[in-house]
Amino acid sequence: DIVLTQAPLSVSVTPGESASISCRSSKSLLSSKGITSLYWYLQKPGKSPQLLIYRMSNLASGVPDRFSGSGSETDFTLKISKVETEDVGVYYCAQFLEYPRTFGGGTKLELK
Amino acid sequence: EVQLVESGGGLVQPGRSMKLSCAASGFTFSSFPMAWVRQAPTKGLEWVATISTSGGSTYYRDSVKGRFTISRDNAKSTLYLQMNSLRSEDTATYYCTRYDYWGQGVMVTVSS
């Protein structure tokens, strides 16, 4: 199974500042079609997960452009510029390259 | 507007069965693979199963293979998860998802 390791486990950010979350894969997520199958989700407190980034760097519909995704074949970063109060929650990376689909352990973002 | 509404959860004894349903609306259901993802209390996200658009291909995590069955009725725009031989470790909130859209989740508690 592909293992996704997120860091840090939690991050505390002052509103208006930036935050970065790392996700490392145990295997390349680059498909034979040239697509990197890494996704980012945010789960706000008491809510269902919502898609932020698909295929490593594409912003999902309705997601503010304060969010951005980047990376290589195995190392990925979610960056949130100018963090707002509504960004609080747990962030998960996920891979949809192979079965079983796997998620990272999550990174909790809190405000200072 | 895309909507996914789960139903069928509740309290069930170990070893018994339960069937979850997910009513989809706001999109052409038959055009999208669908999945179930679960989240145990205070834990992270865990993929359970995926079904192809026609229902002809299904995929499961090892821990539910042979016990859970994912299915769909494209005429009714409904996704199902039949869960047999339930165990305490199956206790979780179960989400129906198109990967970009998620339902509100339904709680399944396996306990005597």
List keywords for this structure.
heterodimer, A: 112 residues, mainly beta, 7-stranded mixed β-sheet, 4-stranded antiparallel β-sheet, 11 strands, globular, B: 112 residues
Can you offer a commentary on this structure?
Chain A is mostly beta strands. Chain A is built from no helices and eleven strands. In chain A, strand 7 and strand 8 form a beta hairpin. Chain B is globular. The termini of chain B are far apart. The model of chain B has no long low-confidence stretch (mean pLDDT 98). At the A-B interface, strand 4, strand 5, strand 9 and strand 10 of A face strand 5 of B.
Which helices and strands occur, and which strands form pairs?
The complex is a heterodimer of chains A (112) and B (112).
Chain A: E1 4-7, E2 10-13, E3 19-25, E4 38-43, E5 49-54, E6 58-59, E7 67-71, E8 75-80, E9 89-95, E10 102-103, E11 107-111
Parallel strand pairs in A: 2-11
Antiparallel strand pairs in A: 1-3, 3-8, 4-5, 4-9, 5-6, 7-8, 9-10, 9-11
Chain B: E1 3-7, E2 10-12, E3 18-25, E4 34-39, E5 45-51, E6 58-60, E7 68-73, E8 78-83, E9 92-97, E10 106-110
**What does the largest sheet of chain B look like?**
6 strands, mixed
- Any idea what the shape of chain A is? globular
Q: Which sequence of SSEs, written as H and E, runs from N to C of chain A?
A: EEEEEEEEEEE
Total number of helices of chain A? 0
Uncertain runs of chain A: none
The proportion of residues in beta strands of chain B is over 45%
Overall mean pLDDT of chain A stands at 97
The overall strand count of chain A is: 11
Largest sheet of chain A: 7 strands, mixed
Q: Helix/strand-derived class of chain B?
A: mainly beta
Low-confidence spans of chain B: pLDDT under 50, at least 5 residues? none
Radius of gyration of chain B, Cα only, in angstroms?
13 Å
The fraction of residues in strands of chain A falls at over 45%
Structural class of chain A: mainly beta
